[in-house]
Amino acid sequence: MSDLKVLILGGYGTFGGRLALLLADEPRVTLMIAGRSLAQAQEFCAALSARATLQAARFDREGDVEAQLVALAPDIVVDASGPFQAYGDPYRVVRAALAHGINYLDLADGSDFVHGIAQFEGQARERGVFVLAGASSFPVLTAAVTRRLAAGMTRVAAITGGIAPSPYAGVGLNVIRAIAGYAGQKVALVRDGRKTFGYGLVETLRYTVAPPGRVPPRNTRFSLVDVPDLQVIPDLWPGLRDIWMGAGPVPEVLHRLLNFCAWLVRLRLVPSLARLAPLMHWATNVLRWGEHRGGMFVEVAGEAEGAPLTRSWHMIAEGDDGPLIPSMASEAIIRHCLDGKKPAPGARAAVGDLELEDYEKLFARRAIVTGRREVNTDTRAQPLYRRLLGDAYASLPAPLQAMHDLNGDMTAEGTATVTRGSGPLARLAAAVIGFPQAGDNVPLRVDFKLENGRERWMRTFARRSFHSTQEQGRGRYEWLVCERFGPLNAGMALLIDDGKLRLVVRRWSLFGIPLPLWLAPRGDSYEYAEDGRFHFHVEIGHPLTGLIVSYRGWLVAKV
Predict the structure, then answer these.
(1) What are the residue ranges of helices labelled H in 267-414?
(2) 467-501: buried (b, 16+ CB within 10 Å) or exposed (e) per residue?
(3) Are 93 and 67 in contact (CB under 8 A)?
(4) Which of 46, 192, 431, 536 is most deeply packed, by most CB within 10 A?
(5) More confident residue, 380 or 106
């Protein structure tokens, strides 16, 4: 197709509006922004800067759908309105599109709706059109990621995934209505190799979305959601024993409140949360705080060459780019049509119509980063920093790799310039830990020892020594390097930034008590290569003390 007329139902709503934004730069497209209110559609079109042709339209899915489609005569109709779980006749638009040979896409998140779209396979093939349901992150992106992760595996046993949207993403009322409808209700899934049920927003797990070499969001609580993946992905991997998909909305206090309400439904103390949908919508969009970034993960567990293997894919989206991702599957399919790569005729869940490469091209235009991790017998035995950085480790300068590739004890020597804080609290903290005295060109020796999976770093500045231990974090410190100075434990992300390896504090505790991040020790600490040598720059301070100590210099490993 060279030029397309695309009708977006719910075109000025949350997901439809984002799809219009994603396609606004395409001059070969006429975007018909439709909904019940012509005035709102016109207002949306007036506000959108676009190279595409924009046309506002009124469309009432409860009216004569066929007549409205005939009048607008689109090449593709995209149903982005929802909630698909709540429609009396959920397939009215599908039937009308088929009757007039119009290609159809939707962003449905209802598992039963998406699974049931296959009933129109014969009609769609006969009319020569595609009818693709669930063209969204769940299940299109998750399926594409799973195919990438499962490559080379001889067996796929379990698939787990989750999306953690930014608290500032903005959630439409229809999405909340869908969530409220299945909260505490039975959700069909596969567990222990058989079809069974879980309970929506009752089952939970914690996970850290952590692309290697990036600063991860905080460890997140995910709750089971009713999404198409639970029914359509097991069809792609028939031997699958377990599948679980969740959402991790923040702030966590509101998430836990939602879990509590879902439990009330599960225990049949209340019939449904449907009546609370407007209140839930208000709370989600008003009571929000935290970092303006979202994340997603997919983890595949199985076997390769007879050995256990777990691979995971991680994505972080910064700022306002994250909320666009659910609409990107429809964007990619429409762009394929423009390039003459129209999907094959038929009616199906859209899980096989895009690959991860299609998404990666769209991600590259946004502040969206991804990465992959692998856990097997070999990776568990790797040195700490190589294990935590995964594939990103190869991008470190050679002197940094040499310093961190500990397979046994090692000693490095060099010099440092030390600066001490002048305040009384800073001096007290430095004395308690044993930080060195101020000085220039101070001789420095660092002894690295491996002790029960931990790295012990003994730093000796002239004749003054102090030590710390470093190890891989667990639980809420997952994928962080945990450095302990006596009773203080700092969980730090390893960020690769323009050839430097930065250590960014993400969690901390004192005497085992977790403390708020705004009270954590801070400072600009990083490693870099210069003149073929390992260099370091470490600052340690605190909001109550100011600078405690900083030391910078170089080290060379002794052979």
Answers:
(1) 277-286, 328-338, 356-363, 377-380, 384-389, 398-404
(2) bbbbbbbeebbbbbbbbbbeebbbbbbbbbeeebb
(3) no
(4) 536
(5) 106
- Residue 249 pLDDT: 93
DSSP character string of 132-192: EE--SIIIIIHHHHHHHHHTT-SEEEEEEEEEE--TTS---HHHHHHHHHHTTSEEEEEET
Burial label, 222 (beta-carbon count in 10 A; 0-12, 13-18, 19+): buried
- DSSP structure class, residue 92: H
Q: Using CB atoms within 10 A of its CB, is residue 340 exposed (0-12), middle (13-18) or buried (19+)? A: exposed
Per-position DSSP letters for 36-84, written without gaps between them = S-HHHHHHHHHH---SSEEEEEE--TTS-HHHHHHHH--SEEEE----G
DSSP 3-state of 367: coil
Q: What is the CATH number of domain 137-320+368-374?
A: 3.30.360.10
What span, in angstroms and rounded, lies between the C-alpha atoms of 381 and 379?
Answer: 5
pLDDT at 84 over 80: no
Beta-carbon contacts of residue 428 (< 8 Å; ≥ 6 apart): none
H-helix or E-strand spanning residue 98: helix 92-99
- The domain segmentation of the chain, as residue ranges, is 4-135+326-352, 137-320+368-374, 382-557
pLDDT of residue 88: 66
Q: What is the value of pTM for the model shown?
A: 0.92
Q: Which residues does 354 contact at the CB level (< 8 Å), separation at least 6?
A: 140, 141, 144, 329, 332, 333
Give the pLDDT score at 407.
84
Query: What pLDDT, on a 0 to 100 scale, did the predictor assign at position 3?
Result: 86
Per cent of the chain over pLDDT 90 is 85
- Supply the pLDDT for residue 1: 45
Instruction: Region of 192 please: left (phi>0), alpha (psi -120 to 50) or beta.
Output: left
C-alpha angle 388/391/392, rounded to 5°?
75
Q: Which two tokens stand for residue 105?
A: 């896409």
Convert the pLDDT of each residue in 197-221 to its tens digit.
999 999 999 999 999 999 999 999 9
b/e sequence 399-429, b meaning 16+ C-beta within 10 Å: bbbebbeeeeebebebebebebbeeeebbeb
> CATH topology for 382-557?
Lipocalin (2.40.128)
Average pLDDT over residues 383-393: 94
Fold of 4-135+326-352: Rossmann fold (3.40.50)
3-state SS assignment for residue 506 = strand
pLDDT of residue 339 exceeding 50, the answer is: yes
Confidence of residue 89 (pLDDT cuts 50, 70, 90): confident
pLDDT, tens only, 121-169: 999 999 999 999 999 999 999 999 999 999 999 999 999 999 999 999 8
